[in-house]
Amino acid sequence: MPKEFGTHENHGKALIVEDEITNRLILKKLLQKHGYEVIEAENGRQAVSLFEQHQPDIVFMDVMMPEMDGYEATIQIKQRAGNSFVPIIFLTAMQDEKALARCVEVGGDDFLSKPYSFTVLSAKVKAMERIRILQQDTRMLYSRMQRDQEIAEQVFSGAVVAENVALEHIHSLLQPASLFSGDLMLTAFAPSHDLYVLLGDFTGHGLASALGALPTSEAFRSMTAKGFGPHQILQAINNKLYTLLPTGMFMAVQFVKIDHQLDHIKLINCGMPDCYLIDKDGRRIKQKINSQSLPLGIAPDINLKDDFHFLKINEGDRIILATDGVTEARNPKGELFGQIRYIDAIKHSIDHDYILDNLSGELQEFCSDAPQDDDISVVEIPLIRQMFPALGSSKAPNKKVEHELPETILKEHPDCIEFQFTLYGAQLRQADPIPILINSIQETAGLHDHRRPLFTILTELYVNALDHGILKLDSSLKQGENGFTDYFQQREQRLNNLSQGCVRINLRIYSQDSGGHIIITIEDSGNGFDYSNHKKDSSNDQLYSGRGLLLVESLCKQLHFFKPGNKAEAIYAWEKTK
After folding, report:
1. Enclosing H/E stretch for 267
2. Residue 423 burial by CB count (10 A; 0-12/13-18/19+): exposed, middle or buried?
3. Quick check: 458 and 250 in contact, CB under 8 A?
4. How far is CA 44 from the centre of its chain?
């Protein structure tokens, strides 16, 4: 049956603020018929006090009252209500437009004209109830959204940020424009002990932009750990983002590989602002690397190998990476921070330990309290030896095993695992056999703790065979200011034209109760190189040749070259820990 007039369910409390008793009584009766418990106040000051005591659901406010008028009372009540929606309906017979506008300015939500009409009152009350319910639903959804974002932020931090390395030395300014940043920084050590650093900038900012960080970090970390090179990692990330991201969304990126011997860096810029190599003493810009490649996720199967820059470095130099949120940051007048201020901040940082100390201060002073339009990210990497782990810091120390090799290891023996891998002609420029071999060793022999030394040995011997045996490159090319750039440019040119030759890699793994040995044999089809001089060259700190082979000798039980120098055999030995 329909409800009878006057039997409305209870709608909560209503506060009437009116100095005329007759008007209060009339409005009280009408509201009681509508199901409200009524509280009465004679002036604005009393209304504020009663609001604090009873927390009413709706307020009916007269304008002209003694002690405190309705305008001031409304302001104070709205302040005390905070985020809760408590509608205030002004009671007025005024027709003055300025006075009515003032009611809205102080927080009034509607008007009720005198004399009161129950029909009009009912319509306005129902409208306010609908708004209050909508506001409550909105608050609930917003609270749920905040909770979801908090959970997502925890997942994001754990999966993307927590595994970064060398953060005690890498200085960064990561300032998102909202809870989630569309920028991300990833760092990891390769098995070779080289440091990989990626700074990415997804289209836009917020949660939608941050979602791309998860597949990016997964590909970056897994492929770095397996020993893949920077261009292979970026190509894998590109293919994944191209598949996952919607049209119009992509990731600009700067990627730098820092050689653990601090000889050189390998760097690429894909759709980002210029990045800089800074002189260690005078804060002079030694090299500027601008963007020459597409951002990732725009096109499939891009080839980034030829877009990398090889730069010679000195210990103590610094690398500065940044997203466009820095140069495009605005001040309250709408002016951009710009490239000139950015470069000046770098040059004027001579009195600071870190360039970022000066840059972040100038950026903050420039922007002042202006709203932040985009994520701001700057990364400063000091090229210092303390940033790299010692070669013997893994779980299995890379010390040379002192016991003698068993006789059977020098002869054919059936109780072993053997791999053979041969690359011919054009495959030498397309394939990287080392990650495949390392993973095969781990899967079959379980030598997970020996990944780093084995990776170093295999890489140095393979690169030595390819560069000197097949490509006939001379390490002396690396000398001079542009030595590394010239060397790697010639290397890429010769690789691109390569159609003949081969490199054969053979591994024999002998495992025993007390430990084991791996015999690594690498042979190329070239004419050999002068291996007798590599120790002499490597002893000279000013030369960049021979160091890799000296490192291999320090990790191996034996290293032997066969005449004419196109075949090397290394024996790596380990002891099982108790």
Report:
1. strand 264-270
2. buried
3. no
4. 54
> CA–CA distance from 286 to each of 74, 263, 282, 314 (Å)?
64, 15, 10, 11
CB-based contact 265:257 (threshold 8 Å): yes
Residue 530 DSSP SS3 = coil
Q: Buried (b) or exposed (e) across 290-321, using 16+ Cβ within 10 A?
A: ebebbbbbbeeebebbebbbbbbbeeebbbbb
> How far, in Å, CA of 281 to CA of 318, rounded?
10
The H or E element containing residue 140 is helix 118-156
Residue 393 banded pLDDT, cuts 50, 70, 90: very low
> 258 to each of 205, 246, 381, 422, 567, how far by Cα in Å?
29, 33, 10, 29, 29
> pLDDT tens digit string along 169-194?
999 999 888 777 788 999 999 988 89
The predicted-structure confidence for 247-306, as pLDDT tens digits, reads as follows 889 999 999 999 988 989 999 999 999 999 999 888 899 999 999 899 999 999 888 988
Estimate the crossing angle of helix 97-105 against helix 70-81, to 10 degrees.
20
DSSP, collapsed to helix, strand or coil, labels residue 241 as helix
Question: In Å, what is the CA distance from 405 to each residue of 178, 375, 531?
Answer: 61, 58, 24
DSSP 157-186: IIIIITT---TTT-EEEEE-SSSS-SEEEE
Which tens digits make up the pLDDT trace of 6-36? 444 566 899 999 988 988 898 898 888 888 8
Burial group, residue 210, by CB count within 10 angstroms (0-12, 13-18, 19+): buried
Beta bridge partners of 516: 511, 574
Q: Which of 112-121, 319-328, 564-573 has the highest mean pLDDT?
A: 319-328
* Both structure tokens of 81: 């209500």
Q: For residue 189, which of 219, 224, 163 has the smallest C-alpha distance? A: 224
Q: What is the pLDDT of residue 10?
A: 63
End-to-end CA gap in the chain: 85
pTM of the model: 0.71
Sequence length of the chain is: 578
Backbone phi and psi for residue 398, each to the nearest 5 degrees, phi listed first: -85, 35
The residue behind tokens 């418990």 is 37
What is the residue type of 470?
I
